[in-house]
Specification:
This protein has 2 domains: about 150 residues, Rossmann fold (3-Layer(aba) Sandwich), CATH 3.40.50; about 160 residues, Response regulator (Rossmann fold, 3-Layer(aba) Sandwich), CATH 3.40.50.2300. Helix content is about 40%, strand content about 20%. The protein is of the alpha/beta class. The termini are far apart. This is ABC transporter substrate-binding protein PnrA-like domain-containing protein.
């Protein structure tokens, strides 16, 4: 096991323990999260877990069913088991589960579901999506500034060269990419952006190698859009002494000298909000709710040690334009 793999294994294990620290409680209201992956990714799943943990602290009975990302049969089995049990007020599920939920939800019309980061038009499903294109627009603005302003960002060469290392070529990932490109071009129209796909969301060592290659090809800032594999992106940038931007959760502290910011998809907030809406009887099942910059569904969380107030002000001005509609961010969805 190489040094990178050892460090990654230890950090994921520790984070998984913390993310699963809140256990199920006795409650008249209950929520279960059927996962197609594991906790400990320091990204999407751990962010989602914060919402379930907040609900558990307020008395909601919570369970998070982890599963191997390479065992889709288990994902389906878990979804069918909780749906047929009658034990859960609401069943949450998310990425990679569209076909499974499309098959299971109609067979259980009395079971309520929340489907986040995707959409399914069924009367017992509340779909939740995030305007990752808007958050990525701000990430692109920051990346272009950081690449070209060598006084404020001394690890950059000054060349307007960036990279996106992404998990797979999917519509939702293209939404990240399109927003990032637009934001970067608003700062430097001639910006060059390498887009590299890993082929999955779990191969952190491959992500590490691809990141190193992107930096060798001139990238000053690398945007992580790769789920659990993104831990390899951040370490690859740090080992190359270049900047990176994290995703989904606050990843700034993982490599504090190199991670400029994290583009948050506020998944935990949407989970917590959905639970409270269902408890109150105000959730609109059969509809789609979108969380973007205007309702704090996405955000760019800065590493204050690396990003000055002056740079933040420039990006905040762009954020205001997006919220007001002056800037319309492209979307792949």
């Amino acid at each position: 096991m190489n040094t990178f793999t050892k460090a990654l294994t230890v950090s994921v294990a520790l984070t998984g323990l913390m993310a699963g620290a809140v256990m199920a409680q006795d409650s008249d209201f209950s929520a279960v999260y059927v996962m197609s992956d594991n906790l400990g990714d320091m990204g999407f799943n751990d962010n989602a877990a914060t919402g379930f943990n907040r609900a558990a602290e307020e008395g909601v009975r919570v369970r998070m069913l982890q599963a191997s990302p390479t065992d889709p049969q288990l994902w389906r089995q878990n979804l069918e088991a909780v749906s047929n049990s009658g034990d859960w007020s609401v069943v949450f599920t998310g990425p990679n589960m569209h076909d499974n939920l499309a098959a299971v939800a109609p067979q259980n019309p009395d079971q309520k579901y929340v489907f986040f980061d995707d959409e399914l038009a069924e009367p017992n499903v509340l779909s939740v999506k995030y305007a990752q294109n808007e958050g990525s627009y701000l990430a692109g603005v920051l990346a272009a500034i950081a690449a070209t302003d060598t006084e404020s960002f001394p690890l950059s060469s000054g060349a307007p060269k960036l990279a996106i290392v992404a998990g797979m070529d999917l519509p939702i990932i293209q939404d990240f990419i399109g927003g990032f490109k637009q934001g970067a071009a608003s700062v430097v129209p001639e910006v060059e952006i390498q887009v590299i796909f890993i082929g999955n969301f779990n191969d952190a060592p491959k992500a590490y190698d691809l990141t190193k290659t992107a930096i060798e090809n001139g990238a000053n800032v690398v945007y992580n859009v790769a789920g659990p594999a993104g831990l390899g992106i951040l370490k690859g940038a740090a080992d190359s002494k270049k900047y990176a931007i994290g995703v989904d959760s606050d990843q700034n502290a993982l490599h504090p000298d190199y991670v400029l910011a994290s583009m948050l998809k506020q998944i935990g907030n949407s989970v917590y909000d959905s639970i409270n809406q269902i408890k109150a009887g105000t959730a609109e099942f059969g509809t789609l709710k979108v969380y973007g910059l205007a309702n704090d569904g996405v955000a760019l969380l800065y590493n204050d040690a690396l990003v000055s107030n002056a740079v933040k002000a420039r990006i905040d001005a762009e954020k205001a334009k997006v919220i007001s509609g002056e800037v319309e961010v492209v979307t792949a969805l």
